[in-house]
Design goal:
With about 290 residues, the chain is an alpha/beta fold. It has helices at about 20, 50-60, 80-95, 105-110, 125-130, 175-180, 190-200, 210-220, 250-265, 270-275; strands at about 60-65, 70, 75, 95-100, 115-120, 130-135, 140, 145, 165-170, 185-190, 205-210, 225-230, 240-245. The longest helix is centred in the last third of the chain and has 16 residues, at about 250-265. It starts with 17 loop residues before the first helix and ends in a 13-residue tail after the last helix.
Length: about 290
């Protein structure tokens, strides 16, 4: 399995502020910002936002993505990653082409002139304080539990014994939450290292993104791990994800909402995820 050298991005790409972390959000998607870490919403970089009219005038919408982060995105384009495929589909619905701004650090994210970021965690409190506009959600995700193949019975993090070695990403929300519960956590810098350790028996479980675990199983059918969507029972480890738009006007937001709705209805999003071994899970309505 090729190594992505980064953490998962569910969500957006810069370190999250302390107050956002208390609200249940960890780090953003790339570069030490992991989905299980949990990632996602960051303060918008100081780039000039573009309106729908400006995007249509240019004939291009720009996406920020990591160049080496399968299954999320890859500059090699073989495969491109589900974020790139979804962004291309969005661009087609808008009647424009897609440009990708490849970024590998928070500084680059802040300065890149991109219009959208995929896998932005929906957190209304944080987004109300920033210039990020979010689309209607298109997926429900969170911190999943990965176990060795053949492990039966366990269905949640709360069922893990304190003697179990649980892999977590350094600085992640999962590390904080599970550590506070007294679980024996083992930190890793990258999800690919963590899931390899699980497959090899170095650790007993892993707090990981469903996307990373699903892609590992797709690429390694003989070493597949058991994936449990444990976040469904853990509100602080679960979230909806959406398209993040930097300073977008209302018209762009409406256009992207309509495109997301069509892509959900016709199975486009489901099919893109499936190509990467990921199960599409419909967004959960806020209670």
């Amino acid at each position: 399995m090729s190594r992505s050298r980064r953490s998962s991005p569910t969500f957006a790409p810069c370190p999250i502020r302390p107050e956002a972390r208390r609200r249940g959000i960890g780090y953003g998607a790339a570069l030490g910002v992991a989905l299980f870490a949990v990632a996602a919403v960051c303060i918008v970089p100081p780039a000039v936002p573009r309106s729908l009219a400006a995007i249509e005038g240019r004939g291009v919408i720009s996406l920020c993505a990591h160049p080496n982060a399968l299954p999320f995105a890859s500059r090699k384009d073989s495969p491109p990653g589900f974020q790139i495929e979804m962004a291309r589909a969005l661009a087609r619905h808008l009647g424009v082409s897609l440009d990708v701004a490849w970024v590998v650090s928070p500084v680059q994210y802040r300065s890149a002139e991109c219009d959208i970021v995929l896998d932005t965690i929906v957190n209304r409190d944080v987004q109300a304080e920033s210039r990020i506009r979010i689309s209607r959600p298109y997926h429900h995700s969170g911190v999943a539990l990965a176990l060795p193949a053949g492990t039966d019975g366990l269905a949640s993090f709360r069922e893990l014994g304190r003697d179990r070695r649980v892999g977590v990403q350094v600085g992640s929300l999962a590390q904080m939450v599970l550590g506070q519960r007294g679980l024996r956590t083992t930190p890793y810098g990258f999800e690919d290292e963590m899931i390899e350790a699980l497959a090899e028996g170095t650790i007993d479980a892993a707090a990981i993104s469903p996307a990373s675990a699903g892609y590992f199983n797709l690429k390694n059918p003989g070493r597949a791990v058991r994936l449990v969507h444990a976040y469904e029972q853990e509100p602080e480890l679960a979230w909806n994800i959406a398209v993040g738009m930097r300073g977008a006007d209302a018209l762009l937001g409406q256009k992207i909402d309509a495109a997301v709705q069509r892509m959900l209805a016709d199975g486009t999003i489901r099919d893109i995820y499936a190509r990467y071994g990921i199960e599409h899970r419909p967004p959960v309505t806020a209670r």
